[in-house]
Amino acid sequence: MGIKSLVNIDDYDKDDIYRIIKSASLFKQNPNRNLLQGKVCATLFFEPSTRTRLSFETAVNRLRGRIIGFSDAATSSSTKGESLKDTIMMVSNYADLIIMRHHLEGSARYASEISPIPVINAGDGSNQHPTQTMLDLFTIYETQGTLEDLTITIVGDLKYGRAVHSLIQGLSHFRPRFNFVAPEELHIPDKYKTFCENHQIPYKEFTEFSPEAINSADILYMTRVQKERFTDLMEYEKVKNIYILHNRMLDDSKENLKVLHPLPRVKEINQDVDANPKAYYFQQAKNGMYTRQAIICDLMKIGG
Ligand code: CP
Question: Is the pTM for the entire model greater than 0.85?
Answer without folding.
Answer: yes
